[in-house]
Amino acid sequence: MNQVRVARQPIFDRRLEVVGYELLFRAGDATTAVVADPERATATVVLNSFTELGLERVVGARPAWINVSRDFVLHGFATSVPPDLVLLEILEDELIDDELVTAITALKQQGHRFALDDFHYTPSAEPLLQLVDVVKLDLLALGRDNLADEIARLRPYGVSLLAEKLEAQEDFAYCLNAGCDLFQGYFFCRPELVQGRRVDANRLSLLRLLAALQDPSIELADLERTIALDVSLSYRLLRYINSAFFGLRQEVRSVGQALALLGMERLKQWAALSIFTSIEVKPAELSLIALIRARFCELAFRHASGANASELFTLGLFSVIDALMDLPMEEVLERIPFPQDMRLALITHEGPKGRLLDCVTALERGDFEQAEALVPDAGDLYASALAWANRAADAAFVQVGLDA
User: Fold this and answer.
1) Which of 135, 155, 189 is the last residue of a domain?
2) CATH number reported for the structural domain that contains residue 126 in this entry
3) How far apart are CA 40 and CA 1, in angstroms?
């Protein structure tokens, strides 16, 4: 197992703040391998994630949620993971007996936390319900009525209830009103239907700036005049260039100097990032996903013929702009003169650029086979993108202007 692939899915609280990431692992070649000892294989992959990948590169400061089996617990592998950084998920259909309950009780005394995954009540689950911290309820499998029944049954146990497989905004709203505490799914990546929404003036000026940057003949002097006339843009730009992300020895005090240091390509990235920081009502995780996709596409530039890395960074970043603005992708793109192949990639995932977006979304859901069929080194690129995005988020989403 000389290669470890990992994907992550965020877990949200009721305020849509990320409280952890579920990690999905795969080891070895994606299309082969007969593993003689699955439990040892799982253990090797999990432990390798701490050593080869570095847990902080994958999840930052938030806990990792990892699926484990009964044998993973009984064979002592669980004692090798740090209890303050990891929450262990046990499938509900594992054999629950005194041996497993005893082992989990001992681990709980050492500070380990547990979730019961894919839960559907049976009497045999009673002993574990007295021990686990979280119970995960699959909305897609249960349906709304059965989910409500399970919530009512589980409330006396005092466990946190996590609703998963939420595919739309209305799913999240239903589970929130039903009393769930935690949420997982792709609902936050889709635009909420809001009739008559308009782009506010500040965001529109950013879109216009980004549109101007698509003109290959534009000069830095023209851009300096445009930015200098907008106090908010000037402030954001200087905050960005002076952030720890760049590590400059001397403070930059003028828009012209900032533009000269950034250059045209990085200026395009800054303008695009600034659009995202101006959106306050969406979970910050959505902006982080945009950064991960942007960096992944940038790193995978050789798989999209005729595209440069900067253009692909913008492609990945804008792949969630419809959800951030609650507007159809076509309507957002009307304001930006992207080339036709970029528009088709963002709207329908057509062409080489569209395949990059298909690849990174496959990685997000843990479909490593599809991802690596599209981009052979997708797993390595995604791990690098995760690490970069976690570092860059402070500069892009804090220094630039979440507090501006």
Assistant:
1) 189
2) 3.20.20.450
3) 11
